Amino acid sequence: MPTSSVGPLGGWATLADLFAGHRSPAYARLAQACAADPQVEALGPPLVVLHVVRLAALQGRAQDPWTGDPDAFRRDAHTLHDEVAAAVRRGIVQFTEPLRMADLLPGLLIAAARYPDRPLRLIDIGACAGLHLNPECYEIRYPRSAWSPTTAGMTLECALDVPARLLERELAIADRVGIDLAPVDPAAPGTFAYLRSFSWAGDPDREQRLQSALITVASRAPEVRAGSVMDLLPDLLAERVSPDAVTAIIDSATSRYLSGRDGFRLGRLLDRMACRGPLALVSRGRAVPNQEGLPTSVGVIDLSRRWCITYAASDLLSERMLWVGSISERFAGRDAGRHP
Q1: Other Cβ atoms within 10 Å of 236 Cβ, number
Q2: What's the burial of 68, exposed, middle or buried (CB within 10 Å: 0-12/13-18/19+)?
Q3: Considering 32, 67, 124, 251, which has the largest number of Cβ atoms within 10 A of its Cβ?
Q4: Nearest to 282 by CA among 140, 116, 100
């Protein structure tokens, strides 16, 4: 989840089921208890309240909500009322999950394969600390093969059954830039604790992945510009979209948080810019039918050639993934550049 205006994912009752489905029983217990407590409901969006209390806990000023103790959480949330109110006014959630790189990478490879011999220009429209702008920082082990750049500084394990031939392709990146309402410097003191405060209770690997990714990316942190997508993206596209490269926009979650009006404006903008040079969108969107009932789809839209494919289904955090893109089996072969 990139830095986003808050209101997403619903209230405490909705989140109880979501947390339970993401191996976060402690947060599911808190959500169930808070859904029946009008005073906690009135404090603000649940993800913001959880963030404030957990950050205070990491600083030794509250009980860690990862314990799942509803009474302690309600007490601390009310004690921290002023901090909660300030965070609600700020209106930002900055959850970032390095594992999402594993389901975004095939999309970047597909986009590059459609335009052989042209490098990628990456734009992440919800960059946070820029963890998804450096695919060469990660070795990603899939069931049939692995993405193993020599520059990798950490390893991600992923169950997405990506066609091995797709992972054999080169990924040349000419430049990269991110957009975020409140960019986070991966090398700054306190960044790990701050981003930890947004991490959901449950799988301890979540925090370990985050810490490793911040360390890995810190030495090559990409530029992330502060501002909203609709304020900054037009100029970035005008600077970068050209016939000699493939401009690939990474949308790991941001489009879900745009208003209907801004979503429409984004679509119009991409349509206009697609005539200037190869422009692709690698996006995590709404569910497509899949055998595991996973709620998120991952796909590529080649805006310049009016072509698209959904190749994966995922849960919200990319901890469970399913390959659904049969077309990409063929697309990963030698004829990739000849598709319409």
Answers
A1: 20
A2: middle
A3: 124
A4: 100
Per-residue model confidence as pLDDT tens for the chain (340 residues):
444 444 556 799 999 999 998 999 999 999 999 999 999 999 999 999 999 999 999 999 999 999 999 999 999 999 999 999 999 999 888 989 999 999 999 999 999 999 999 999 999 999 999 999 999 999 999 998 999 999 999 999 999 999 999 999 889 999 999 999 999 999 999 999 999 999 999 888 999 999 999 999 999 999 999 999 999 999 999 999 999 999 999 999 888 888 889 999 999 999 999 999 999 999 998 888 899 999 999 999 999 999 999 999 999 999 999 999 764 444 544 444 333 3
Contact 151, 26 (CB under 8 A): no
What string of H, E and C letters represents the secondary structure of the chain?
Answer: CCCECCCCCCCHHHHHHHHHHCCCHHHHHHHHHHHCCHHHHCCCCHHHHHHHHHHHHHCCCCCCHHHCCHHHHHHHHHHCHHHHHHHHHHCCECCCCCCHHHHHHHHHHHHHHCCCCCCEEEEECCCCCCCCCCHHHEEEECCCCEECCCCCCEEEECCCCCCHHHHCCCCCEEEEEEEECCCCCCCCCCHHHHHHCCCCCCCCHHHHHHHHHHHHHHCCCCEEEECCHHHHHHHHHHHHCCCCCEEEEEECCHHHHCCHHHHHHHHHHHHHHCCCCCEEEEEEEECCCCCCCCCEEEEEEECCCCEEEEEEEECCCCCCEEECCHHHHHHCCCCHHHCC
Assessment of whether the complete model's pTM goes beyond 0.85: yes
